[in-house]
Amino acid sequence: MAARLLEESIRSETLRALGPEAKIDVIRGLVRKQVRDHPEGITTTTLAELLDISPNTAKKHLDHLVATREIYSKAYSPRNVVYFPNERLSHPHLQLQIELEKQVFRVNLIENERGEFVYVQELQESPGSGMKVVGGIIIRKDNLEKLIEGVYEALENEEREKLV
Q1: Span 115-144, pLDDT tens digits
Q2: Which residues contact residue 145 at a Cβ distance below 8 angstroms, ignoring those fewer than 6 apart?
Q3: Fold of 1-86
Q4: N or C, which end of the chain is more exposed by having fewer CB within 10 Å?
């Protein structure tokens, strides 16, 4: 069914009229959905078969989603990498969106097999596809205070250096 959806999307006049970045967003959205629909994990080969795309194209999109922390991967061997959805919100009501001048961040508390985390994503407006994730950081919930203290310490050190 997903392959049919992708095929119909790719062949549609609307998609053909989109620019390259918007087309990537459509395919990446389908990749993201397949990973979320397979919480037990999905391989590049399986994803490529489901979406009727090449394994190289599937891997490119999976790698991007790993880099932006939307999913994570676990390598069981060099040729057996499995991708998992990275967000199971532990407290959906605690999702927060923060706008700082021209930057927008979304903060979630997530819980997965590795523990509890604070997940900060940087969002950016994308023509034709709304807000998309362009970066992210995941930190263990227990380590958040240490991170914030470290940021303040770095800022204080910078101020001291300016005075010298």
Answers
A1: 888 989 899 987 766 788 888 898 999 999
A2: none
A3: Arc Repressor Mutant, subunit A (1.10.10)
A4: C
